[in-house]
Write a structure and sequence with these properties.
The protein is mostly helical. The chain has a single domain, classed as Helix Hairpins (Orthogonal Bundle). Helix content is about 55%, strand content about 0%. It is elongated, with a radius of gyration of 13 Å. The protein starts with 7 loop residues before the first helix and ends in a 5-residue tail after the last helix. It is found in: Mitochondrion. This is Cx9C motif-containing protein 4. Keywords: Disulfide bond, Mitochondrion. Belongs to the CMC4 family.
Amino acid sequence: MPQKDPCQKQACAIQKCLQANKYIESLCEDVIQAMRKCCEVHAGENSVCCSGFAKEHKATDTRTVV
C-alpha cells in the first residue's frame, strides 16, 4: 500500500479555502504558507502535492544577494 503524501492535509486545506473564497488566493495566504512550510520540511521525499511548490521554491532561490 502506498504511503500517504506528507503534505496532503495542507493541499486539501488550500483547495477547501480557495473554493470557500471564490478562488481569491490572497484570502488563503495562511494555508498556502502552511503548505510551503510542509514542503520545505519534506523536500527530500517524493511528494506529489509539493511538486509545484518545489519548482516555485527553486525559482526563488536563483536570485543573487548583493
